[in-house]
């Protein structure tokens, strides 16, 4: 997953420098689905322990859950409004970059 996170960071940098080069929204949604799949697998294996107080990874699990939820909200709003959400998307990208700190 660390490789996917780093690749996502590189793609975000390229998207900033070359905004018209590729269909960045599609690429971002692919990353979102990969991260969502990882989250669902964690939930499937850890069950109730995923957000349990005794779990050593509760902070990171909560962080991942928040980032993915925000990404899904951005995706849904973009689909409903049929436009790029601009500054909101930028905020979500910045928050997703924090995953690298993990």
In percent terms, what proportion of residues is strand? under 5%
SSE pattern? HHHH
- Rg, rounded, reads 14 Å
**Multimerization status:** single chain
Contiguous uncertain segments of 5+ residues: none
Q: Using DSSP, what is the number of strands?
A: 0
- The amount of helix comes to over 70%
Class derived from helix and strand content: mainly alpha
Mean pLDDT value: 82
How many alpha or pi helices? 4
Dominant shape: globular
Largest sheet: none
Kindly report how far apart the N and C termini lie: 11 Å
Per-chain topology:
Blueprint: H1 2-17, H2 24-46, H3 58-81, H4 87-97
Structure notes:
This protein is an all-alpha fold. The protein is 73% helix and 0% strand.
List keywords for this structure.
mainly alpha; single chain; 102 residues; 4 helices
Summarize the structure.
The protein is mostly helical and 102 residues long. It is built from four helices and no strands.
């Amino acid at each position: 997953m660390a490789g996917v996170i780093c690749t996502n960071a590189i793609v975000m940098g390229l998207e900033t420098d070359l905004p018209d080069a590729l269909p960045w929204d599609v690429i971002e949604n692919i990353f979102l689905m990969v991260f969502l799949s990882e989250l669902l697998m964690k939930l499937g294996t850890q069950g109730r322990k995923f957000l349990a107080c005794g779990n050593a990874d509760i902070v990171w699990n909560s962080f991942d859950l928040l980032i993915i939820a925000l990404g899904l909200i951005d995706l849904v709003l973009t689909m409903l409004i049929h436009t790029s959400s601009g500054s909101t998307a930028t905020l979500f990208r910045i928050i997703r970059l924090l995953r690298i700190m993990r």
